């Protein structure tokens, strides 16, 4: 529909600051979308662990006073160069905090920025020069980065040029709005800036709106069957195991980015588990209980479709549960129930989830014991607590960005479906949290017999299934190298796909993004880097069409699509997205 001439004219006269504001909002959305909370097993970091790292930094000063003095002198020399105008210090080109031209054109702001950069560099050099152990150095670097990020001049209303301009342009209204936002967050968000305006999104209407029915419900989960949009469907259904830490509808956001709708359009009969959001009374639900839930879901899907077996999909921690279930089936001689599997951003080799990650700095045995004791006392691990700790792992992206946007500029947080989903957190039962943390120490999927599920010892070498595994090049939660090792657990014929995206974007990756690409090849190399070198040319676009071809070839013969969902034994209980997804 075309606009009226008046509308077109007003649009063409959009002010530059409006365009700049829209661009800034898109950058904010993009940055935050790459830092979504997700179901990694490493959910045991506490505030006390961070405080201990601060003590490590002070320990470095005490142990190396001469180095500290020398670097202080170097910092003072750098300040001299800044004052006489000879300093060449510049922020990294990708540091968007200092992209405003005023940081270079204004002599005061330029000197302030260079002083900040000099201090940060000397602190990093001092830590490198200390006699601290390697792990202590890494923890000290982390604390130093937290301190440097907090003290950035871009975070101050008196020295942020964009905030100062907006203060003048709005006659002080931006400051008033920022104060209102700050007060609201202080009272209702435990002092952290709000990341998203969730009010435009309604479950079942413009988010989680794919057509389906709840066909089974027990106290732990609902099973959703989604209606095919094709005249025929494949005989072998697909059963999805989503993370327990998030709600399932990351795969059913807005219609244009819904993986559920893509699967519906693929002629695949899809069943998705929607986990209940547990409370303290469910504190004893553990990994065994969740794995057995998968067996119930499989039995329902087999009964409704008449298929002797199913394909399965596990995302992140939902994949950890799926692996436990497959090991349980193999131990009981029932592996024939599952023919093929898909694994999205899922690390089953637990040390791989620790390598080169910030969370890996804090997974000492003492920290894990304390984390288990804490959730045991409370009965659950709160999703809000997880989100807060996760935010402090990446403060520039998840705290200071919003500090500037919400408080200094007085803008409202953006309305975006991925962020709304990310804000809709869930809880973990204390026992499941403890089981996750035990996985870190036991690494049971690579060490047969170290994990039992419902009395059965798990040995993944006995699991014989086809496998399609997806990782993301910039995934900070489940590194792609770790995801590759998941593929290796299922043999050289497993297909590994590496997408140029982060944790959630590796999954929510619909066709149409011109910047998307991926690599796909069998997991025949021991080393992930060697695999990448030999994976062939990169493929343009989304990996979804590649997966569609893979799953259709493994889903059996076609048959007429069912006119109704469910069956006489399992009649529809209510429309998707169901009731459990609405619990807070």
Automatic annotation (TrEMBL):
Residues 94-263 form the Poly-beta-hydroxybutyrate polymerase N-terminal domain. One of its GO terms (molecular function) is acyltransferase activity. Residues 1-10 have a biased composition (Polar residues). Keywords: Acyltransferase, Transferase. Residues 1-24, 554-584 are annotated as: Disordered. GO terms for biological process: poly-hydroxybutyrate biosynthetic process. This is Polyhydroxyalkanoic acid synthase. It comes from Metapseudomonas furukawaii (Pseudomonas furukawaii). The lineage of its organism: Bacteria, Pseudomonadati, Pseudomonadota, Gammaproteobacteria, Pseudomonadales.
